[in-house]
Amino acid sequence: MSENLDGIRLEGFIESLQQDRGPILEAIRARAIEDGVPIIRSETENLLRFLVMTRKPKKILEVGCAIGYSALVMHTVAQNYGGCHITTMESYEPRIEQARANFAAAGAEAGIELLTGDATPYLTAMQPDAQFDLIFLDAAKAQYVVWLPNLLRLLKSDGLLVTDNILTGGDILESRFAVTRRNRTIHTRMREFLEKVTHDPALTSAVLSSGDGVCLTSKIQVPD
Length: 224
Known about the structure:
CATH superfamily: Vaccinia Virus protein VP39
Distance between the termini: 54 Å
Shape: globular
Number of domains: 1
Order of helices and strands: HHHEHEHEHEHEHEE
Helix content: 40-55%
CATH topology: Rossmann fold
Largest sheet: 7 strands, mixed
Structural class: alpha/beta
Number of strands: 7
Radius of gyration: 17 Å
């Protein structure tokens, strides 16, 4: 109980340090919380803002749009350095309509392309010249390891893959048999994903405990 209270207090403290999001993002966030729609936590949002501002990506790929909140966060930050183009994907129809409405309300339709349906065919079909400076992965956790080869193929040599929810609500720490049966596939595949990105000699990764866990992955640059 004490750990849960400490976590709530810490999350509230971090939220108190949050920079002004602006009325549109604040309204979208409030509605998402009220409706129980999963969006990025404040800690993850702050990290994403920092990464976009410091790396200044011109092309971003997001897998897992939901109602468009994180895409709009990145789009808003990018306006500070001249903007970027964001390609985002979502398969759940009710959230697709909300995302479109939110992009329209923010006047961001020109800068954000929304692809609808299963991400797998899109990721498979994208050509190597459609490479991205930053990829934000925040979708079906059991698919992370399935999508990984294509995500790395589409990531620029100096790009950054940002993967959210890698701690799976704390389940990642448990034995497979201590996890509820319906979550065992997610548990197994997330561990496989983390093993691949942290032990592949062609990659360098940092696993952070922010929010529900974030993994940052880049390709190792080999000198000519």
